[in-house]
Structures are given as structure tokens and as C-alpha cells.
């Protein structure tokens, strides 16, 4: 139904598509920023308003993304002080693993669509990696 | 969070033609709401009723629990779909005019926006392009500290780069507890800044929902849903 291209958030820019909920896309972008170290454990997040302006989205939508991240434990609120990235590095590692597996399963899905078996995919992947490092 | 607009069974008929047919809805504070619908669906009629330019045929309409009148005009900042400014005036003159008219008008903000759009305050409106006139009007409207901004087609006549600037202006210039009601056909340009939409169809509300809920439920953009609902 939807192409997987251009949908991956990059580390520094907001690429929001219009066919999926904005708050989910914002969450994905912030998760990527956490995993790649743009935000370090314990870092303070910008305010809802500032980040909403930066991403050109409604502040309510940004607020919703923050609340969801908070529910998942990746972000916590310190009363009056603002919002901070979790200091639980195990949780961040876990998130990174999960994101890696998500990418892999998408990759495997598209390889299957192209008609490659698991064995063939692995073989091709090895060759591609060899070429990349060569 | 409070209720800014309440309407019950609101109806407006022009002779035999019913433009708005028993519309009941509420608009809460703190939202940016898209008022969407095809031509002739009643958008501008609804907006004119909100601003007291038309009187309802039947039904009730309250702005913060008060009927439409002087008090409601103090808190609503309205961008009409046609200009009412005197084209012989300079930008500065219309700024002064707005300042005299509305207690909540903040000239500093207006001049800052004019500067960033490189519009000369000494220029006369009639010497400006259509798009620049629209920018001036929007600057006037967004420089008030209103509780409800009602924008009828704010981005129709301007180029895409200016459209981005205008959306940014809207986003950065409303207070967190104010609401913005925007009527437009350019849904895809605007849908990321909306958090709610109201679909009008033949004078009736056929949908009022959160943008992200719609995307989640239908797995498509508001623009795509609009095209489906209003397919000709």
C-alpha cells in the first residue's frame, strides 16, 4: 500500500508524510535521535512549542508524541523543569535492537516480494557487504 | 481548555436555498481546526455567521456562551475571503487603523512580520501584487491577541514558499489557549499543522475528528480522504 522510501526519518530533518499519524512519525524521529545520540541520556528536550515550530506541526500533536514517549519510559517529566531523556541506558539499547529488527524484517519482506529465499538473501547480503567494504 | 464556539441546529437559508442546515458543533480552545468542504458546502456562510456578518435563519450560536455581538468581535480575529481595506491607504495607515479599532492589536509584531517579508510600510496597497496584499491582511489579523482566529482561505493566492511562511506565522502567533479555524481547499499544504478537521457537505457537518485519528483509522491523508468523500 505504501512505499517504504522517503519514510525513514533522518537524524537531523523532519520528513513528515501525510498518510500516517503525525505523532507517530514524530515519535520515530525522536527515537532515532535518542538511539543515534543526538540526545544523550539525561539531556533536556526542547519545549513542545519550540519543537512544534521547528517541525511545523501543531503543538497538540507534539504534546501527544511526548506523552507517548513518556508512557514508553523513554522520556520523563521533571515538574516545572521540563522533559528529559531517560537515563536508563538498557532501555535505549533495547530500543536500538528493536529498531534494528524492524529494519531487518522490512528488508526481508521486500526480498521475499522479489522472490528471494532466506538463503539467497543471506548470500546476496554477504556479497553486498563485501563490495561495500572493498 | 474551554468551549469557544457552540452552535445548535444552526441554519442559514437564502430564500429557498439552504446554505447551512442544522449544524451542531463545538469548538474548543487550543486547537487549529480545518474547515473543509467543496465549493458551496457552507464554509463561508458558517464563518460569516460566526462574525456577525449574517444572522442565522434558525438555531443557536454562542461565542463563549454569549450571542454574536460586540463582545464576540473583540475576541475573534477574522480574515475574510475578500479584502475590505482601502486600496489607497499605505500599509502604515491600515496598521494605525487596526490599532485604533482593536485593543488587542500589537503593532510591534505586525512590523516585525512586515520586515521579515520585506514589505515596505510606506507602500500603498494598490501598488502591491495580489499575493502581497493577502500577506498584509494576514499580518494584520495575526497581530491581534485574539482568542479565536477565523481565516477564510488564507493561503489561496500566494506562492508555495510564502505559504510555508504564512503557516509558520499562524503556528507561531497564536496563544496556546487560542484556537484557529482555517477554511481552505489546499488541504495537503495545511494538514500537518491542523489537529482537527470539520468536513462540511451540502450545508451539514459530515465529520469532525482529530487529524491523527483519521490517518490512523483510514490509513490515508486528510487530502486523500477528502477526495474520496467528495468524489464528483
**Range of helix content of chain B:** 25-40%
Q: Helix count of chain B?
A: 9
If strands are numbered along the chain, what order do they take across the biggest sheet of chain B? 6-7-8-3-9-10
Main β-sheet of chain A, in a few words?
Answer: 2 strands, antiparallel
How many strands in all of chain B? 10
Descriptive account of the structure:
- The complex is a heterodimer of chains A (134) and B (232).
- Chain A has helices at residues 22-35, 48-55, 59-71, 89-114, 118-133; strands at residues 75-78, 82-85.
- Chain A is mostly helical.
- Chain A has a two-stranded antiparallel sheet with strand order 1-2.
- In chain A, helix 1 (22-35) crosses helix 3 (59-71), helix 1 crosses helix 4 (89-114) and helix 2 (48-55) packs across helix 3 (59-71).
- Chain A is elongated.
- Chain B has a single domain (3-229), classed as Rossmann fold.
- In chain B, the strands form two sheets. In chain B, strands 6-7-8-3-9-10 form a six-stranded mixed beta sheet, with helices on both faces.
- In chain B, helix 5 runs parallel beside helix 6.
What characteristics describe this protein?
heterodimer; A: 134 residues; mainly alpha; Arc Repressor Mutant, subunit A; 2 domains; two-stranded antiparallel ribbon; 5 helices; 2 strands; 57% helix; 6% strand; disordered N terminus; B: 232 residues; alpha/beta; Rossmann fold; six-stranded mixed sheet; four-stranded antiparallel sheet; 9 helices
List the helices and strands and how they pair.
The complex is a heterodimer of chains A (134) and B (232).
Chain A: H1 22-35, H2 48-55, H3 59-71, E1 75-78, E2 82-85, H4 89-114, H5 118-133
Antiparallel strand pairs in A: 1-2
Chain B: E1 3-14, E2 17-28, E3 32-36, H1 43-50, E4 58-63, E5 66-67, H2 70-75, E6 76-79, H3 91-101, H4 107-116, H5 130-142, E7 148-152, H6 160-173, E8 179-183, H7 187-190, E9 196-201, E10 204-210, H8 211-218, H9 222-229
Parallel strand pairs in B: 3-8, 3-9, 6-7, 7-8
Antiparallel strand pairs in B: 1-2, 1-4, 4-5, 9-10
Helix pairs in contact in B: 5-6
